[in-house]
Design brief:
Low-confidence stretches: none
Distance between the termini: 50 Å
Helix content: 25-40%
Strand content: 25-35%
Strand order of the largest sheet: 4-1-10-11-12
Number of strands: 12
Largest sheet: 5 strands, antiparallel
Mean pLDDT: 86
Shape: globular
Oligomer: single chain
Radius of gyration: 21 Å
Order of helices and strands: HEEEEHEEEEEHEEE
Length: 175
């Protein structure tokens, strides 16, 4: 090994490695905890899905998701010169969310929620863009028309399931 300007004993190196490993485990577990809080305490939204290719050969069975309102959000974000931010959605009695406007600090009205978005190129990502399921279960999810999200007050979202056109859950509820 080349001479380095600092020299650590084997014990010090193991200590640094252990602290780094613990810090990574702590950060991952904190992310899991925050996502679980969103799932348990967040508001439920259904986002209408737009068609997309449902499989990836290397990743197994999954459904690539594209949300129908993404084009509206992309146009509004482009007009406002925004790449990342939040949108205001109105929640219908069925639970379906409809795009209202970009969030510019206004207080959401009753029945409205915030939802984070990220614009990359011409496409907008509103939440997870993939739903993984057990191999051989693709037919169960073939009729998916809505993605179920749980959203916290800041607009952070977790994809929790898929629903058909009649608002019936597809597959098994895992949480």
């Amino acid at each position: 090994m080349p001479d380095l300007p600092f020299h650590f004993s084997d014990r010090t190196r193991r200590g640094i490695l252990a602290i780094t490993g613990l810090a990574i485990i702590l950060l991952v577990n904190m992310q899991i905890f925050f996502k679980e809080q969103i799932v348990s305490d967040g508001d439920r939204l259904l986002l209408q899905l737009a068609p997309r290719d449902p499989r990836a050969l290397l990743q197994g069975d999954y459904m690539a998701l594209r949300y129908a309102m993404a084009d509206e959000v992309a146009q509004a974000a482009a007009a406002a010169g925004m790449d990342d931010g939040r949108i205001v959605v109105e929640v219908q009695p069925t639970g379906e969310a409809r795009f209202v406007d970009l969030y510019r600090g206004q207080a959401p009205a009753s029945g409205q929620r915030l939802l984070h978005f990220r614009k990359r190129g011409d496409s907008v990502r509103l939440a997870s863009d993939a739903y993984f399921f057990q191999e051989g279960q693709s037919e169960v999810y073939a009729d998916a028309r809505y993605g179920e999200l749980h959203v916290d007050t800041d607009g952070d979202a977790v994809l929790t399931g898929l629903f058909d056109g009649e608002f019936k859950r597809l597959g098994t509820l895992f949480h």
